[in-house]
Amino acid sequence: MFVIIGWAVAMACIFGVYIAHGGNIAVILHALPFEMTTIFGAALGAFLANNQMKVVKATAAGLGQCFKGSKYNKARYMDLLALMYDILQKARKEGLMSIEKDVEDPHSSAVFQKYPTVGNDHHVTEFITDYLRMMVSGNLNAHEIESLMDNEIDTHHAEAHAPVAALQRLAGGLPAFGIVAAVLGVVNTMGSVGQPPAVLGGMIGSALVGTFLGILLAYAFAEPLAGLLEQKVEDAGKEFQCIKTTLLASMQGYAPQVAIEFGRKVLFSGDRPSFTELEVFVKKK
Hints:
Blueprint: H1 2-20, H2 25-50, H3 53-66, H4 74-94, H5 100-104, H6 110-113, H7 116-119, H8 122-137, H9 142-190, H10 197-251, H11 256-265, H12 275-284
């Protein structure tokens, strides 16, 4: 919703001021289809040439997420921390082997399904169960597991950041493609030097629309989407850091209620539940 509002404000201010100063919007509208086809076609071709198909698909999926609200909020994090508390409390009371069935089949686990928001999230459950499985096996210490977690989180961040980098490169190239469209327009104008000044003026004006559109598309559309997508990537990474911190605190001997406090502290302040909110929620569950 805010993406659409932002674009609407930008377009209203840009074109509103242009018209208010006596600008002829018909010149832009006349050149728009040709210039947009040139710029979009060149940008799309370069985008496909510059990225692997997995990055193209991830970028398309990421653009779809830009128009949706973030799923990473206080309610989700309270579910996550309550899930971590329940599974760690069960392991503490009944022994690590008691959570083996929960780890092997989280979709049938009463503990995981108690919190469907995170319990049915494939990436979250896989991350949790993989390291709980290592804890159950008892073959790795906390430092070794921390190193593995860091490597996996870094890999996840690199994969999730690829669409962001692709959009940023696209935003950087759009002004250049606008110049290409403008140069073609100038070439076309130079081939018509025998025309009256009024006609030549219109042709030059249409050519300059290409430069204008390239810059506009880069800094009003592509670059903001890349920035928004990067923020969503950081939100997703913060969830894994929360899980990592909680599990490591548990491995170091802290009680579940203290371990989830470690995890709570790494969350962004706007999404972080207070100590009291989390305590009440866990007790209620």
